[in-house]
């Protein structure tokens, strides 16, 4: 029995058995000791998982873990498992995710660089959101991967990133859509210098797509996206990005629209972005003109805005905006020839943009 136990725990033996099971579709199942029929791939993956995590009775052996990782890399098992995840049984998928996350977290035998050299792995994990059966498994592996800047960079600078904006965070399956948004948030916040540089080089494309998220018919998507936008803009590492964002009239219009949203939660999140437009001491002329045009209505709105909240910082910020708007003026030269006639009617659902209702 001791020899049998040791044999099962031997990394070389397990790696060989897993490879054989994946390559031999004719013997996918067989009885275990209790007579229960089990999938061989699932069984081998579970044994590998226990070697990496321990089984509650036996501690993990670092040497065996390193050897196991080295063998999985040498046999190219990880790409094979990830790319064929949907073909594996339910339990096997969970084991794959747990094995992958363990190796990624500990970066055993240069696992992170190995995955970086295999771009099809990250791409397959992103595309996993298109299959509800494997989406959550892929999500956990993606978030573990993008803890490493080199892999986050790979996704940020690949066409796969735009699928989050356009498709994945909008998925009708609530669990999958929420998981995709969690990954999306990590991509845009975890590695601050990397993300700031990405925003700077892709500013127009990013925020054109981001404004579409803010216009989503899905309440959860709209609220989550708006809250995340506030976090991104108010992060010190994104100061230059914030200044670009708050100098564009389309973005101010978006926030003023969201201040009128029926949801008080969305109104509150919009306030935290809108306040930056008002507080900016270097407002461009077109932003100042829009605020000045709507000055009285904005002040009246803010004076009644969520007065039930007792948060001192919120109250202080609101009062600051009211004072700033009250003293807002255009320089004399700014008052000539302007066409930025954007109205903010609290009682209507239409805008007047340069003389045209929209």
Automatic annotation (TrEMBL):
Belongs to the Mo25 family. GO terms for cellular component: cytoplasm. This is Calcium-binding protein. PANTHER family: CALCIUM-BINDING PROTEIN 39-RELATED (PTHR10182), PROTEIN MO25 (PTHR10182:SF3). One of its GO terms (biological process) is intracellular signal transduction. InterPro entries: ARM-like, ARM-type_fold, Mo25. It comes from Thraustotheca clavata. It comes from the Eukaryota. One of its GO terms (molecular function) is protein serine/threonine kinase activator activity.
């Amino acid at each position: 029995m001791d020899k049998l136990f040791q044999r099962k725990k031997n990394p070389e033996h397990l790696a060989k058995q897993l490879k054989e099971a994946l390559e031999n579709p004719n013997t996918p199942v067989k009885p275990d000791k209790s007579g229960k029929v089990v999938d061989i791939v699932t069984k081998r993956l579970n044994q590998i998982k226990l070697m990496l995590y321990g089984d509650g009775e036996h501690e993990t052996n670092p040497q065996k873990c390193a050897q196991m990782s080295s063998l999985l890399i040498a046999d190219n098992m990880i790409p094979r498992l990830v790319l064929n995840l949907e073909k594996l049984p339910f339990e096997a998928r969970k084991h794959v995710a747990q094995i992958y996350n363990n190796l990624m977290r500990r970066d055993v035998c240069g696992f992170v660089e190995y995955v970086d050299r295999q771009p099809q792995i990250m791409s397959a994990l992103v595309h996993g959101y298109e299959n509800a059966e494997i989406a959550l498994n892929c999500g956990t592996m993606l978030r573990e991967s993008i803890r490493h800047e080199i892999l986050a960079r790979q996704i940020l600078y690949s066409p796969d990133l735009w699928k989050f904006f356009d498709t994945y965070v909008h998925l009708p399956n609530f669990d999958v859509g929420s998981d995709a948004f969690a990954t999306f948030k990590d991509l845009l916040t975890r590695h601050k210098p990397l993300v700031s540089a990405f925003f700077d080089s892709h500013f127009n494309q990013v925020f054109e797509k981001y404004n579409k998220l803010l216009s989503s018919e899905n309440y959860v998507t709209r609220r989550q996206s708006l809250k995340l936008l506030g976090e991104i803009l108010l992060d010190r590492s994104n100061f230059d990005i914030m200044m670009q964002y708050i100098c564009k009239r389309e973005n101010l219009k978006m926030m003023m629209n969201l201040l009128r949203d029926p949801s008080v939660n969305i109104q509150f999140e919009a306030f935290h972005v809108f306040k930056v437009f008002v507080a900016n001491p270097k407002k461009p002329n077109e932003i100042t003109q829009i605020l000045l045009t709507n000055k009285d209505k904005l002040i009246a709105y803010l004076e009644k805005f969520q007065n039930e909240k007792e948060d001192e910082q919120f109250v202080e910020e609101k009062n600051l905006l009211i004072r700033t708007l009250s003293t807002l003026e255009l320089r004399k030269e700014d008052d000539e020839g302007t066409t930025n006639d954007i109205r903010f009617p609290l009682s209507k659902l239409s805008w007047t943009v340069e003389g045209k209702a929209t």
